[in-house]
Amino acid sequence: MNAARLSAMLVKEYHDAKSNVQVLSVIIVPIFLAILYSRMDGELDFAASFVFIMAVTFVTMYVQALLLAEEKEKNTLQVLLLSPASSADIMVGKSIISVILTVIVLVVSMLIIDVNVASPIMLSVILLVALILFVALGTLVGLLSENLVQTTVYLLPLSFVFGFGPMIQMYFSDGIIGDILGYTPGSFMMEACLAAINGEAFSSYREDIIWLVGWTVAALILTFITFKKKSLSK
Predict the structure, then answer these.
(1) Where are the domains of the chain?
(2) Which one, of 44, 58, 63, lies nearest residue 193 by Cα?
(3) pTM for the complete prediction?
(4) What is the pLDDT of residue 82?
C-alpha cells in the first residue's frame, strides 16, 4: 500500500464527511444513547454493549456506505478505480475515516457510561473484529447502491436488524424470530461484549467470537468480489 495515496484519500474523505449532514447526524446517535443510559439506573455492562453495537452499526456501516455512495453520485469513484491506486489502497483508504470516527465515538461513549471493563484486551479484539465486519458491510452497500437515496433504503433494514437485533430478540426469545436474530452479528457481538466486560472465561463466549469472525470473513469475501466486478466493469 502507498502511504502517500492513503494520506491523500484520508484528507479527501475527511472533507467529504464533515460536509455531509447525514454522516454528522449518525455520529450523534450512539453518543446520545450513552448519555441517556448513563443517567438511568440499570446494568451498565448491558448499556455499554448496546451502545457499542449502535456505534459500529450507525457510524461504521452508515458512514462507510454514505461516503462511497456519494462518491458514486459524483462519478469520482470511477476515476479512482481507473487510477494507479491498487485495490488495497482504495479499500483501506475509503475505510480509514469510518474507523477513526467510530473509534472516537466508542471512546467517548465508554467515558460517558463509565463502565468498568474486566477484560479490556478481549473487548478491544471483539470491537476490532466488529469494525472490520461493518466496514465491509458498509462498503458492500455503497458498491451495490446507485445513489444516496438507494443507499439509505438498503441501510435502514440492515441497521435495524443488526443494531436493534439483540433488543428485539429479548422480546421474541421463544419464537422463530428470536432464533433467527440469534444468528445475526449484533447478537454475537452483544454476548461477547457482555462477557468481556464482566470478565467471564473465554470459553463462555468463544463460540460468539467464532461466529462473529465467520460473518466478517464472509462479508470481506463478498465485498472483495463485488469490488473487483465493479472495477472490471469500468
Answers:
(1) 3-233
(2) 44
(3) 0.84
(4) 59
